[in-house]
Amino acid sequence: VDPQAWKACAGAAARFPAVGSRVYYFPQGHAEQASSPVDIPGVVSAGLLCRVSAVRLLADVDTDEVFARISLDHCCFRSPFISSSTVPDISLEEDGGCGGFVSFSKILTASDANNGGGFSVPKFCAESILPPLNYEKVPTVQIIHVRDLHGVAWSFRHIYRGTPRRHLLTTGWCNFVKEKKLVAGDSIVFMKNLSGQLLVGIRRTSRSCGLTEYPRYYPKEALG
Amino acid sequence: VDPQAWKACAGAAARFPAVGSRVYYFPQGHAEQASSPVDIPGVVSAGLLCRVSAVRLLADVDTDEVFARISLDHCCFRSPFISSSTVPDISLEEDGGCGGFVSFSKILTASDANNGGGFSVPKFCAESILPPLNYEKVPTVQIIHVRDLHGVAWSFRHIYRGTPRRHLLTTGWCNFVKEKKLVAGDSIVFMKNLSGQLLVGIRRTSRSCGLTEYPRYYPKEALG
DNA sequence: TTGTCGGCCGATCGCCGACAA
DNA sequence: TTGTCGGCGATCGGCCGACAA
After folding, report:
1. Where are the alpha helices (DSSP H) in chain A?
2. Confidence check: pLDDT of B142 > 80
3. Per UniProt, which keywords does this protein have (chains A, B) (predicted)?
């Protein structure tokens, strides 16, 4: 995915090593996070000096969560290594300035995540990222087109209404919440890239990982 | 699952070998149906004489489709073997009479499978399997409780109405259709076992295997 | 500035008898 | 006997401004 979008979604604390830098690989730390068991005979807790041969910035195809795949080289050891998005204490790769790429993240409130309602867009986010509205027309409304990190297109009705006036996303929003399985506490990241295209990313609260809601089997009594 | 329920769902043509009988195992036929590749070095197309050591009657946990797991013994070869529900030309195991176990199957019509409507219960099915209604009360209605082959309980509102009168399942039915992903052309099997308990099974049309419906991402234009 | 609430209006769900195959 | 249809009432989704934090 786009590196700037990746960083906006991963958050300011996200770090990953530069390609070519030397890092220590600790199987212990890997095993604690990996879903498949890690067992490399002869490698003990001391750590293994490696060279970073590649870093790929990716987004989970199901959850949209961003992560980095960091490939390591060793004399007799080569393995893909999936890190979490926050890997502190490793050398930082920085680019020079944001260069017109802007992003804004908001933690979803209960009202945002209720499928009954829309999404309250903070004023700063609307004015800095969303296309400008024609405030002379009433209702003051437009359809915005956004792509997620996988390139899938979404549209939202963006309206400026209420007393006092505020920015809201209505039609299209609840469908997005449903599809992405968002809950209150998750964050949404709105971004505008250099071409002016809108992107949307997701940062989930740890509690919402892998949660699944099963429908009910037992209808209520319904005697006529 | 209950052997009689299994047979009612598999259909009259279903056959499986008796335990202890001798059968030939053809890797070719197995490989054509298996989802995982079958590769047994040294076994060629000639077939392998085996003894049936066990037959288990099962229902797929996702689709409710019934199948038989037939275990085979050979001098130096033992493997679980999953057959389809129809395995002709193998010895037939028969039990003596139905002994009070009754079943009725119906192919779902468009009206049955439309989530808008209910299910038209054929008169013979209602009178031979469903609990008797009190026809003196109006509306003539009851809630029936049914278990699927996995033991999951479902309830349906069973009403006798319309001109001319007919049996219908209404409340609860459309939820069942949704959960089981039934489409027109699939069959539903209603059964009553020796204890008078109601069971429900499913036989799917081949076309509906593994079909998945994805929701739409793009809401229609909705300018106010 | 923005989170939550109740009102309200329109769309949809799903129960109904009519009618014909 | 039963499949399909249009009608229609109840429910729900979701858009709205009011109001207060």
Report:
1. 3-10, 27-33, 110-113, 123-128, 173-180
2. yes
3. Auxin signaling pathway, DNA-binding, Nucleus, Transcription, Transcription regulation
